[in-house]
Amino acid sequence: MSSSFLKKAGAALTLAFLISSSLVAQTLVITGSQSAPTDPILNITVPDTGSAFDSRMIRNWTNPASGKGRHREVGQTFYVPTDYQYEISAMTFRVRLPGQTSTQTAAGQRVKISIYEVGSGSSATPVGPALFEAEGIIPDGLSALDYITFTFSEPFTAQPDTYYSAQLGFSGSPAGSAYMTLVVGSNSIYTDGTGFYYENPEGSATMAYGSTTADFDFNLSGRTIPVIPEGGTANLVLGGAAALGVVVLRQRRKISIR
């Protein structure tokens, strides 16, 4: 095993440790609107009606009879192309129903969004610790089919040629049972990722990932940052210097002629 490989492996482990030990949850500003985000960098749209329209809820639930709880988070995997970084400032899901009854509502509850790196678009199992976490309070007044946007206090930069998962769930222990149902398709729409859930059986502390085999109505907002190929910066600098040299020479020739 080469020393360079060991150095790279050690650096990767150090980076993973630093991420896991120093990650501080950011603040989410959460808003609802009947209008979809404009100019998203990633847009997955599920039709409003018909066989393609379905739902999947996030929940923290305690069975009154048994006292046993059940927790579910949901999310979407996505891919960043090789020629861009995504500087993500917000993400949006679409609400099917904000709550089923007055005692089973999401309004006023704290939620958390986590971003992980995953091995492929079809797998939601993280390959390491969370790269980003942000928390906020679900506002009152959400309506069915609202687009609920989670705006980050600081953007997250997703790297090129990498798969990620965006995971949404209630944070902590809600007062009573909390539900929020989100729009998901019945069939796959987005070829580079999939919707997923993360839940435990009632009364079990063991959480496991599962696929919805379809995509959520999901948007990423922010900007794309073109990637400069290796050596591109140097070529750009040298090219600029050469062009500047030509200008200087031409100026000197003009001066000498005069």
What does this molecule look like?
18% of the residues lie in helices and 47% in strands. It is built from two helices and 16 strands. The chain has helices at residues 3-22, 232-257; strands at residues 26-33, 42-44, 53-62, 69-80, 84-97, 99-101, 104-105, 110-120, 123-126, 132-137, 147-158, 162-170, 178-185, 195-199, 208-211, 218-226. The chain is globular, with a radius of gyration of 24 Å. The model is unreliable at 1-21 and 236-258 (pLDDT under 50).
Question: Could you give the topology of this structure?
Answer:
Layout: H1 3-22, E1 26-33, E2 42-44, E3 53-62, E4 69-80, E5 84-97, E6 99-101, E7 104-105, E8 110-120, E9 123-126, E10 132-137, E11 147-158, E12 162-170, E13 178-185, E14 195-199, E15 208-211, E16 218-226, H2 232-257
Parallel strand pairs: 1-10
Antiparallel strand pairs: 1-11, 2-16, 3-4, 3-13, 4-12, 4-14, 5-11, 5-13, 5-16, 6-7, 8-9, 8-10, 8-12, 14-15
